[in-house]
Design a protein that fits this description.
The chain is of the alpha+beta class. The chain folds into four domains: 15-69 and 201-255 and 268-276 and 302-441, 4-Layer Sandwich (Glutamine Phosphoribosylpyrophosphate, subunit 1, domain 1), CATH 3.60.20; 71-195, 2-Layer Sandwich (Alpha-Beta Plaits); 505-786, Aldolase class I (TIM Barrel); 815-851, no CATH class.
Length: 883
């Protein structure tokens, strides 16, 4: 069923799957079910066919589909054909099931799995219906990968409410999915299993939907609402199961924080309380279905939350909040709702237009930046049409009574049960007014800025020798002090330099590099626009919550018991105040290992701090402070990023991560990338104590004239904050809460054992060093600081410019290379060019490509057997992007 299966060790990564599409809905506000709604949704879908894509066969699309209410009379008729005459239509449900085509044994096995799962949860399976399909309308790829499509017609047990029935169906589906995965059955997928809604979708283009599924043209196929979706896979491989809609939503956009959302959701699974599920709670996990896309994962989270007791509108606002942090005119009740729920979960952030329905409510919402189009029209008969574009249906414009577009973070919804259309303000007032969220926040949130008192600059004398030793041990150099820290402290801005980096990748460097240098930041690509962190600062936030998080399925005043800080950069006095907060028990965990242990001590040290973290959480500690302050001649600092990643993923694996927040007290952190890396791998906040002391030393020594220590440190913090906003904006992420734990990096030069333990899920293509070599670098830095008997001095550095005498980091464009190039340019002689080429070819490797050599073929290929260049050119094209 997957056109492009995952190939081990290939460059294809399924986690990179995103798409940009056409999406919308059609609904009767009055709740009247009609075939016209289905027909209009199909018409609207076909009008957006240009927003999809076609394969070379001009028939295979990236996917299209429709979600409607379950047409009960239609399936009552179909059930009677199977011999089930005594079931009332209101007791029916249908599972739309994709099965392995052409494999009778596996089809029967999958049917058995579904039937057994239903039986275990009290759902009666009345029989299986072969869904009529017309495969002749498909393209070659769509037809070759087409699954067997059948429907299980189901009935509820006496005494169940509709909500009970939906939960039982959900549990049965989760159990069936788990059994199929355990049995390694490829090609099994359940697009929908509900007594309220049904999904028809597939790997085709919009106009083929009703040709492929004749059911949709049957006059008895009626609904009062319909979601439609045309997929455009910008950087994905088409797949039957990844076509939209999913069980509750269709989505045009990208979830940039997906890996972090997945990690945090996985961490929540062990903290869930039974709520409405009782003894069936364990069946819910894993919440996110393996192998799904970003849209699929969001759908899984939304569905689980909705079925756990909240209504759909509440769940959508909870998962995709608007930019409430910097909106002074926002209704206090709505602000309270968003702040309260920021204590429960992080936003699913990224450019997105999301259309959602549970069979009663139908609506749409935009991301906080409004980076996808969503326009709507309301007609005088109560019909509402929403879509990525206007004019998707051919109705009389004179009958339009209202039209508009969704703005950033705005939403609309229709309650088909009550016949009410709700605009943005109505939806949010309804949801936010149900409980006193603002009062809960006022009573329980502790704001660190209100209680942390700044310390005077002269209360802690600075020992310059001790400070320099620390700097050396943590890999500082003079270039960083002069060219990086000074402008940040005096100008409150990062230094500006030319683009490009001709120093070796960290793994290829002959000098001991910090672990931060092994990670490269990812950035927004294809249809995923970055954010202007200056002009669009209103939608961005560095506000951070710390403390234990309670069950996702419940709401209580105590859920708001969190510490709020304005920035992930903590001053020394803020960290001191955080450690002493009553009611928030903090534990300090040294991130050190003994020098006498040698390189093997690093792994042992990681074991030790992970065990200490688990013990602290079990003892009720809500804030863990990982610190490397205790270094001395016999104790070596564990790289803070390694310690942070190890503890973060260890606690996730143990199901304890949400019981605490982690703060890094780090001597290494000094530039924006260091902060971004620590936060990206799970840190709530960072206290860069050596960097703060370095700023202080610059003022007290007279290097930074005309500025106080307090102002210089504040400038340094401001520069870091600005840099973090810039890093987040490159990836289209608006809030630090969404960036935290999102792991939006690629590891270059780290071995798989390191990634699996400390940075699980991070992309790494080339492998690299293990714990032993990381430890060797840490020991080498440590011995440079504590080993020599002579007074300590900082290394020259040479990362930003070539150091004289070859004392610093190697550069690809070093003086020797430049000299031979100039000689060739001036002389124009071939022998000078050969010298230049030899110099370049023989220089030290700086990137993986420098390690590659062409492998000559054994037998030349005759030129007449090579494809002509004109034929090759035909396969290259530049296409427009769909937003």
């Amino acid at each position: 069923m997957n056109t492009y299966p995952t190939v081990p060790n290939s460059l294809y990564r399924p986690e990179f799957e995103h798409d940009a599409c056409g999406v919308g809905f059609v609904a009767n506000t009055n709740g009247r079910a009609e075939h016209r709604i289905v027909a209009l949704a199909v018409e609207a879908l076909c009008s957006l066919a240009h927003r999809g894509a076609l394969d070379a066969d001009a028939k295979t699309g990236d996917g299209a589909g429709i979600l409607t209410q379950l047409p009960k009379a239609f399936f009552k008729r179909e059930a009677e054909k199977l011999g089930a005459h005594a079931v009332h239509e209101d007791d029916l449900a249908v599972a739309m099931v994709f099965l392995p085509r052409g494999q009778k044994y596996l089809v029967a096995k999958c049917q058995q799995i579904v039937e057994e799962a239903c039986a275990q949860h009290g759902v009666h399976c009345l029989g299986w219906r072969q869904v009529p399909v017309n495969a002749r309308c498909l393209g070659d790829k769509g037809r070759d990968t087409m699954p067997e499509i059948q429907q299980a017609i189901l009935a509820r047990a006496p005494g169940w409410s509709p909500e009970d029935f939906e939960r039982k169906l959900f549990l049965a589906r989760k159990q069936a999915e788990g059994a199929a995965m355990a049995g390694k059955i490829d090609g099994f997928y359940i697009p929908s299993m509900s007594g309220r809604t049904i999904v028809y979708k597939g790997l085709f283009n919009a106009p083929q939907l009703t040709k492929f599924y004749p059911d949709l043209k049957d006059p008895m196929f009626v609904s009062s609402l319909a979601i439609y979706h045309q997929r455009y896979s910008t950087n994905t491989f088409p797949n039957w199961r990844l076509a939209h809609p999913f069980r509750m939503l269709a989505h045009n956009g990208e979830i940039n924080t997906l890996l972090g959302n997945k990690n945090w959701t996985r961490a929540r699974e062990r903290e869930l309380t039974p709520s409405v599920w009782g003894a069936d709670l364990g069946t819910l996990t894993p919440i996110l279905q393996q192998g799904g896309s970003d849209s699929s994962a969001l759908d899984n989270a939304l569905e689980t939350l909705q079925l756990s007791g909240r209504d759909l509108l509440h769940c959508v606002m909870m998962l995709a909040p608007e930019a409430w942090e910097n909106m002074p005119g926002l209704d206090p009740a709505v602000r309270g709702f968003y702040e309260y729920h920021s204590c429960l979960n992080e936003p699913w952030d990224g450019p997105a237009a999301v259309v959602f329905s549970d069979g009663r409510y139908i609506g749409a919402t935009l991301d906080r930046n409004g980076l996808r189009p969503a326009r709507y029209k309301i007609y005088e008969d109560g019909l509402v049409v929403m879509g990525s574009e206007v004019g998707v249906v051919s109705l009389d414009e004179k009958k339009v009574v209202r039209k508009g577009r969704l703005g950033p973070g705005k939403c609309l919804a229709i309650d088909t049960a009550t016949g009410v259309f709700m605009d943005n303000d109505a939806v949010k007032a309804l949801v936010a007014g149900r409980k006193p969220y603002a009062q809960w926040c006022a009573d329980h949130i502790v704001r660190l800025a209100a209680i942390a008192k700044p310390l005077s600059a002269d209360t802690r004398p600075l020992d310059l020798l001790e400070h320099t030793v620390r700097q050396i041990a943590f890999g500082w150099d003079q270039e960083q002090v002069d060219d990086l820290i000074q402008p940040m402290a005096t100008q409150a801005a990062e230094p500006i330099g030319s683009m490009g980096d001709d120093t070796p990748f960290a793994v290829l460097s002959k000098r001991p590099r910090l672990l931060f240098d092994y990670f490269k930041q990812l950035f927004a690509q294809v249809t995923n626009p970055p954010i202007d962190s200056i002009r669009e600062k209103i939608v961005m936030s560095l506000g951070t919550s710390m403390g234990a998080r309670r069950s996702w399925f419940e709401e209580s005043p105590e859920h708001a018991r969190q510490v709020k800080v304005e920035s992930p950069f903590l001053y020394d006095f803020e960290l001191s105040a955080l450690r002493e907060l009553p009611g928030f028990r903090a534990a300090t965990i040294p991130a050190l290992f003994g020098l006498a242990e040698g390189p093997a001590g690093l792994a042992t040290g990681l074991d030790r701090i992970c065990a200490a973290a688990s013990q602290a959480v079990d003892a009720g500690k809500a804030i863990l402070v990982l610190t490397d302050r205790g270094i001395d001649a016999g104790r070596v600092a564990i790289p803070m990023l390694l310690a942070m990643g190890a503890v973060h993923h260890h606690l996730i694996r143990e199901g304890k991560r949400l019981r605490c927040s982690i703060v890094c007290e780090s001597g290494e952190a000094r530039d924006v990338h260091h902060f971004a890396s620590l936060i990206g791998f799970g840190a709530s906040a960072v206290n860069p104590y050596v960097a703060i002391d370095t700023v202080r030393e610059g003022v007290e020594s007279g290097k930074y004239a005309g500025i106080t220590v307090e102002k210089a440190v504040a400038n340094f913090r401001k520069a870091i904050e600005y840099g973090l906003l810039k890093v987040m904006s490159k990836m289209g992420i608006s809030t630090i809460a969404s960036y935290r734990g999102a792991q939006i990096f690629e590891a270059i030069g780290l071995g798989q054992e390191v990634v699996d333990r400390c940075f699980f899920g991070t992309t790494t293509h080339v492998g690299g060093i293990g714990f032993d070599l990381i430890a060797a670098d840490a020991i080498r830095r440590h011995q440079s600081a504590f080993g020599p008997p002579e007074p300590a001095t900082l290394d020259v550095g040479g990362n930003y410019r070539v150091a004289r005498g070859g004392r610093g980091e190697y550069h690809a464009y070093n003086p020797q290379v430049v000299l031979t190039l100039h000689r060739f340019i001036k002389s124009g002689q071939r022998d000078e060019f050969v010298k230049f080429m030899e110099t370049v070819a023989n220089r030290d490797p700086v990137s993986p490509r420098d390690l590659l050599r062409f492998k000559p073929g054994t037998v030349p290929v005759p030129i007449d057997e090579v494809e002509p260049i004109d034929e090759i050119r035909r396969r290259f094209t530049t296409a427009g992007m769909s937003l």
